[in-house]
């Protein structure tokens, strides 16, 4: 069993994705377009053109997990204008995206950083 947590790295594919794609089609996108190793254990996120469906592709030791969510009302917010790091998104941003929080109005407070 696996869990999505702040320890995972999340990569958003920035082009609309055909939600009919399954394991192999999404794996091809990760390998060929994102130039990443799909078996790295990172979480890859795909959103359709209407932005009402989202898929997660994750490798877990010996196989793939495919998570799929369809909104009955509303749309997922476009992240590329909000996230400054390109395709990498934080766990906190992902949770807010899934909960429907308007990310343009979120004010992030400074946090302690032990590495400084």
Summarize the structure.
The protein has 116 residues and is an alpha+beta fold. Helices cover 16% and strands 21% of the residues.
Detail the topology: elements first, then pairings.
Blueprint: E1 10-12, H1 23-32, E2 43-47, E3 53-59, E4 64-70, E5 88-89, H2 91-99
Parallel strand pairs: 1-2
Antiparallel strand pairs: 1-5, 2-3, 3-4
Can you characterise this structure?
- The protein is of the alpha+beta class and 116 residues long.
- It has one domain (10-99).
- It is 16% helix and 21% strand.
- The chain has two helices and five strands, in the order βαββββα.
- The chain has helices spanning 23-32, 91-99, and strands at 10-12, 43-47, 53-59, 64-70, 88-89.
- Strands 4-3-2-1-5 form a five-stranded mixed beta sheet.
- A hairpin with a 5-residue loop joins β2 (43-47) and β3.
- The N and C termini lie far apart (35 Å).
| Class from secondary-structure proportions | alpha+beta
Total of domains: 1
Based on DSSP secondary structure assignment, what is the total number of beta strands? 5
Strand content: 15-25%
